[in-house]
Design goal:
By secondary structure, the protein is an alpha+beta fold. The protein has helices at residues 15-30, 38-51, 72-85, 87-106, 115-120, 233-269, 281-311, 316-341, 351-360, 369-388; strands at 125-128, 144-148, 151-162, 169-175, 185-191, 197-202, 211-222, 226-227, 271-272, 275-276. The protein contains 10 helices and 10 strands. The model has no long low-confidence stretch (mean pLDDT 97).
Length: 389
């Protein structure tokens, strides 16, 4: 099935974006990776994406990337196309970017050397922020990093860490000032083989991918492996999420576009009461509603990405809107696609059945829908306060 391209004529995109999508669509349609073993498949996707040059969109040009600063529209489009073909391919791509994002944004030149390997698919990255008692409330994290000479001693636990178990390195956020809340967090680079770092548990989910709970048992980390400003880890995490949240919207769009294409194809072919499913007004109306939600989600996502790339203004609110609307809409669209397929839609092995599972976590990870609406509302009241100050 071909990824649709009409939306690339929108003024948010230029010729390079159109070429990128054409090339990536061809490439993605040719890949044959057996996804039965997710660890193995994920490693293979990272290697293939790296060898083909696609991971170069995840890191800055100074260290193996394509653009001096990440191009948000490319990230959105790449995730759309990959998610259209394989949720695991999208996952592998996204995690290379998110997992190395703080390094790209704030690493020193020598810290950023590893980005070449991230871009080549030779090093697998992971972003370790969430904890058992700190998901949405990041500032409540309990993992600590205590100074000891020129080292930090990192202790605690992280959970729901994507690529946990297969990553070559983890960017770990820890409290460097336990009393300072969001202003007392720093980010550290921990190679997977760091003494005291253990994969405590592998976590299975409805859309399988490498995921784990990690334990840090007094890990000794040199200060040279601290990324970005001391106590500046919360903002660094938020800045990283600002970039990648828009790309989650892209991934959700890719899943929704695939479900939409599957549903239309099925509706055209499925005989029913002497005609086809697509001949019923009920089906036409549901299809119209699906198209509407996909287009609205696309416009919000492309606006956020365009604004970041072209206007270069803060896009926290626009990114939150895009992520919230695109993931919720995709869930709705995919649910309609399953419904149109009838019993076939819930049959294991059907594409829409997999999409139904693949979309669900996107409404939770990288900031749950509730957090996105909070960010949107808070920023509007902040704007009101700024205007009246
Ligand atoms: N960019 C830069 N700085 C930001 C920022 C952003 N997007 N968002 C917040 N900040 C800054 C604030 O300006 C504030 O700075 P000062 O200390 O200088 O005033 C500081 O960070 C703390 O911000 P805030 O008070 O808003 O923090 P809260 O603890 O209230 O948390 C939410 C805000 C809930 C929005 C945040 O914790 C969040 O995004 N949670 C979801 C986390 C998430 O996505 N988890 C998934 C993990 S990855 S799968």
């Amino acid at each position: 099935m071909r990824y649709p391209t009409q939306h690339l004529a929108l003024p948010f995109f230029d010729e390079a974006h159109r070429r990128l999508v054409a090339d990536l669509s061809d490439w993605a349609a040719q890949q044959r990776i057996d996804e039965a073993d997710v660890d193995q498949a994920c490693r293979q996707w990272v290697q293939s994406l790296g060898a083909a040059g696609w991971l170069r969109y995840c890191v800055p040009a100074s260290h193996g990337g394509i653009f001096p600063v990440l191009d948000s529209r490319c990230l959105v489009l790449i995730r759309e196309v990959l998610a259209f073909h394989s949720a695991l391919a999208d996952f592998a791509f996204a995690m290379q970017g998110l997992g190395s994002g703080p390094l790209s944004l704030a690493g020193t030149d020598s810290q950023q050397q590893v980005l070449h390997r991230v871009a080549a698919g030779q090093a697998i990255a992971a972003f370790a922020l969430s904890e058992p008692m700190a998901g949405s409330d990041v500032a409540a994290m309990q993992t600590t990093a205590v100074a000891e000479g020129s080292n930090w001693i990192v202790s605690g636990e992280k959970t729901w860490i994507s690529n946990g178990g297969i990553a070559d390195f983890y960017l770990v956020f820890a409290k460097t000032d336990a009393a300072a809340g969001a202003r007392g967090i720093s980010c550290f680079y921990l190679p997977a083989q760091t003494a005291g770092l253990q994969v405590a548990e592998r976590i299975d989910t409805i859309s399988p991918h490498p995921l784990a709970r990690l334990r840090f048992d007094a890990c000794r980390v040199p200060d040279t492996q601290r990324i970005g400003p001391l106590h500046g880890g919360f903002k660094l995490a938020m800045q990283t999420l600002d970039i990648f949240r828009v790309s989650v919207a892209g991934a959700a769009l890719g899943l929704a576009r695939r479900a939409f294409a599957e549903a239309r194809q099925y509706a055209r072919q499925r005989p029913m009461f002497g005609q086809h499913l697509s001949d019923f007004q009920l089906t036409q109306s549901a299809t119209g509603e699906m198209a509407l939600r996909i287009d609205a989600a696309a416009l919000l996502s492309y606006r956020a990405a365009w604004q970041k790339d072209v206007q270069k203004t803060a896009t926290t609110r626009e990114a939150a809107m895009a992520k919230l609307f695109a993931t919720e809409s995709a869930q709705w669209v995919i649910d309609r696609a399953v419904q149109m397929h009838g019993a076939l839609g819930v049959t294991v092995g059907q594409k829409v059945e997999a999409l139904y599972r693949d979309i669900r976590a996107m409404r939770i990870y990288e900031g749950a829908s509730e957090v996105q609406s909070l960010i949107i509302g808070r920023s509007l009241f902040q704007e009101d306060r700024d205007a009246s100050a």
